[in-house]
Structures are given as C-alpha cells and as structure tokens.
Description:
Belongs to the glycosyltransferase 2 family. This protein is of the alpha/beta class. It folds into 2 domains: 2-216, Spore Coat Polysaccharide Biosynthesis Protein SpsA, Chain A (Alpha-Beta Complex), CATH 3.90.550.10; 233-329, NAD(P)-binding Rossmann-like Domain (Rossmann fold, 3-Layer(aba) Sandwich). The chain is built from 13 helices and 14 strands. An 8-stranded mixed beta sheet has the order 3-2-1-4-7-6-8-5, with helices on both faces. It has a 6-stranded mixed beta sheet with strand order 11-12-10-9-13-14, with helices on both faces.
Amino acid sequence: MISIVLPVYNAEEHIKNAIDSLQRQTLQQYELIIVDDGSRDHTAQFIRSYNDKRINVISLEKNRGIVDALNIGIQNATSAYIARMDADDLCHENRLQQQYDFLRENEHIGAVSCRVRCETTQHNKGMQEFVTWTNTLLSCEEIYRNRFVETPLIHPSMMFRKSLIDKHGGYSHDFPEDYELWLRWLHHGVRIQKLPEYLFTWNDPPQRLTRTDPRYHESQFYACKTHYLAKWLDKKGIGEVVVWGAGKKARQYAALLRDYGVNIQGYIDVDAKKIGKTIHQKPVYHYEKDFVQYSDFFVLSYVGNRGIRDKITAYLEERGLTNGVDFLLMA
C-alpha cells in the first residue's frame, strides 16, 4: 500500500480533480491522507462526501502552514511509501504504479520523481523554462550535480521511502521546505531518480506559496543552498574558491559563504570594466586570459542565465575541469 499525503487549505474549488485523478489510478491499494490546514471554506465537508474508506481527513483547528500539515500527514501514514500530491494537481493513471514498482525494484534508490507537464506556464516564460530544465534531469547523477542550480525536483511529483523521514527528520521551517529536504537527503547520500515518463500535471496558480510566502524568496533559496554547499566544501576539504560572476547579485549571494569560513580568492567575469579591478581586495579575472591564474581554485558559478550557464560549463569542461569535482553551478 501507498500513503498519499495531500495538504489542503481552502481548496474546495479544485480538490475534486485531484482526488478523481487518484481514484483513476491503476494501483488502487492506497490511503489518501488529506490534512485540512484550517480551511475557512467547505473543503473538509466536500472531501468527506466521497464516502471512500481510503480517504483519511485530518482537520486542523487553525491554519498552521504547509510544513506542519506535511509532517502531520506523514506521521499518520501507515505505509512504507509516501507519495506527495497537492490539491491543484493531477496524476496520470499509471503514476502510483510506476513509481511504486520502481522503488520496489531498486532498493538503492530512496526517492523517485517523474517528468511533469505544467498547465499554467503559457504566460510565464521563466516557469516554463524551469519545468523544461527539471525534465532534463533524470539520473541520480544529474539531479545531484545540479542540486545547487535550482530545486531539481517538483515536490508533489515525488514518492519516497518513509524510512528517510525516520532517519533524517521531517520537513523544516527554516528554509523552503521541499528544497531543504532534498538537499538534506542528497547530503546524506540518498539517491534520487526521475522516471522519463510524464506522469504528473503540475498547476501553477497565482496564489501558490512560492509567490506569497517570504520563506520562498530567492534569498532564502540561496541561504539554503549555501548552508549545504558549505557542508559539502568542508567535507571535501575545500576552503578557498573563486566565484564566476562579479555582478551585484553574484557578489551578494557568494558573500554568504564567508559566514561559513569559506575564503573567496577572486572573481571571474567577461565585463572589461570589471577585469583587473578588485572586490574586497580580491582580483577580478578574465575568464579566458587569466585561466591559469584561477584554475587551481575550486570554481563556483553564480551566473543565473541558463544559456550562459551552459556555455560556462562547456568552457570549463573543454579545459579539463569536471562538474562536481573542480566546479559547481550555483544558479
């Protein structure tokens, strides 16, 4: 059996499609744990109208937030496998079966996602690019290598072993809860893979928490990734780095490393106005002419433009550097 954890808040207008997509699953041995997080509409009453013994509604008296709702849902799960779902989203009829079979057949994999379609990205180029990018990351190695670029996994598309929560703890309030959990698992060596099939439809409504909750501000994502990057650098014995990107944003977020004792020994850029100058008494290198001077340092690229990111990767790899060994992409 699978335990599906679905937190909801004022979701009576769209929860029906989500539940119906679960009832059409080829795998029907599941429990659906819906945590009603203090809804002020008739969400709970509507859900109970299904009269389905597999549905367990947990109603919280007041709105406590998604982190508490998720943790409460998982605490009440009786299965060894947890599938995530949100009220806006839809599952392909084979989603649960394929993810369940994959985890059962691959005991070394701790969690599995799938490719997703996003229904509301036509007006949002950035979101469409993000979804397209995540859909290219399938293998454990691709997900791990790109973990600091952006979150490489769509949260409600995930299925994972409950034992991961027992061993590494539940969702945290400190950072964006899903991204922090993935980075925590990856830091501890958990292998996460993504199925190549499109088994999930992810909706992106205007009221989504990533747009309204300050915990999902860009600065919080960088604080989260810096926390786990510093742990990784320390484990590898890397105390000195150079930062690719001498612009304001790159300098701002790279500076977070200083709080962890990481020394920035220079910056790399293409802007002739910056080359040869210093930032905090550290030189700004030309990416090509000064390669020999900075190539002995570990390189962290904070350049967020997706096209330029690929060019930076290609440039460094052409010169014998390896992604994840000699450099990492941070944006």
